[in-house]
Amino acid sequence: MARSFASLAAVACVLAGVTSSLAAPRSFSDSCGDVAARTDAGLVCGRRRAHQYSLYASFRGIPYAKPPLNELRFQAPQPVEPWKDYLNATVEGPICPQQTIFYGPLMEPRGMDEDCLTINVHTPMDAFIEVQDAAPPEVDLVPPYRAGEVRRNFTGVPIVVWIHGGGFGFGSGDSDVYGPEYLVAKGVMVVTFNYRLGALGFLSLNTSAVPGNAGLRDMLAALRWVRRNGARFGGDVGQVTLAGHSAGAAAAHLLTLAPATQGMELFHKAVLMSGAAARGFVASSPVYAAFAAETFLQMLGVNGSDPEQARRELQAAPAERLHDVAALLQDLFGLSVFYPVVEAPHAGVEPVLDDDPEALVSKGRGSDIPLMIGFTENEWESFRPRFVEISIVDILQMKEEVLLPPGVLYKSDPKDLKSKLDLVKARYFPNNETTLDEFGTLLTESYFQYPALFTAQRRLALGGAPAFLYQFSYRGEHRAIENQGFQYGGAVHLEDVLYVFKVNSKAQIPDEKLQDSTDSKMQHWMTMLFTDFMRTGSPVGADRSPDAWPPVRAGDLRYQDIRAPELRMLNLTAAQREMVQFYENLYSNS
User: Considering all CA atoms of the chain, what is the largest pairwise distance in Å, rounded to the nearest integer?
Assistant: First the structure.
């Protein structure tokens, strides 16, 4: 690589003050002057917050698992230790260790710590006050701002559990990017959380000590926490929608396929925004996971031939050391390095991904979960700054195999790879020259648009619960994503999310600027579609004709084109049909 590993490590150290030896400090008090609730681990003190005409109770930084430190590093999350008094739940906890802040100014600088497994709950105040307090008499709470376990005749509000994106290597559930204001105003409880990232979350040595998928297990623990505690905040645990963006969408899809979620009622619908588990960007192959692990261990100077010794060294290594090496490795790979992986059985390890995602989809696993699946018109453009930074074109010229989707690269017969690579190059690089724009088109189609269409088609073929498709094509008047200093053409990766969640960082668009704008109408439109799906299983709800946005039907792969705040169904274009056929052929015999 032409880029300097040393300089990247220096940048990474500036971005992250990573600590691991001690759990991050938390503050407690013997009283709470604001909203309070009782979780199964202890009392939490939150804060009343308001946005425009909406009042909600907000609880931030609640631990949902024991800090994954020392011998718990790489292991499944363990139950959090109960506490006495009130936990201060007014500020979000540290984000999980990571080396690339893709969101830039969209996300404020945050401290990093391995003790990062925290969850945030935001619930409409009128739902929150319906919950009766179950605190002991000696605990002084001021009505009506209290919540507990004993309930009136109140079913609760729908819950959305949001999984943040970031290539399984960066991001957080913080309200900088995922502000709950728009959704709580629509009468929905919003739950966001952090999960382990990068090597700490997805390194696999294919052993019981480091089986991989720690981050997926964190997500499963967060869902179980919501199942146990959601009603205590005014939510309906019988009406949970699992949603995510990009890697978060792929993770949500994987969790619909996980053996641990089948029949457990942890969630009832799923929204996949720019991500899917099958035929997308998730390199779930054990072959790839072994290669990534071997490279990582070599760069750390750890002997991988002795799994037990490797485990001891990895668990004893300073977090800063793991962080710095992972940063170098990410620069070497160009994009994300560690992904969810298909697991081999290990004694004492609960599997979360027991087969190839495409095989699980084809078997009908998770087909009882209604899906809302979306992609944007020009996904790749938001990656342009990162691609320029790492000289992605140079990487592609040295490693042409990166042009193949992971599901083709790691599942095809090696003797077929050359011919398949030639097909990709002929389609996307007809002048036999790799360019950034052409690679961007490849990325948009192979990582985001085709996997969404494939997922919808496969659901239709299996006759499962309905799947609703959309393409987000709206180009806003005031774009928070352009506050990063870059101009983008078309609707890009993450842009649809910013009309469902409020940006609260320095990149936010002031409310007064949005007032009476088309952007404001689009925000109301997107949240209406989102919450109607949560409540009814259809994004057009019960008050509008189902033909306004029908689910995918046989011989009729149509999608909602969200180009304005109005319903507009389109057939696949000729170019989209050709793209689908190209990838069907490419994946054949893979």
Answer: 77
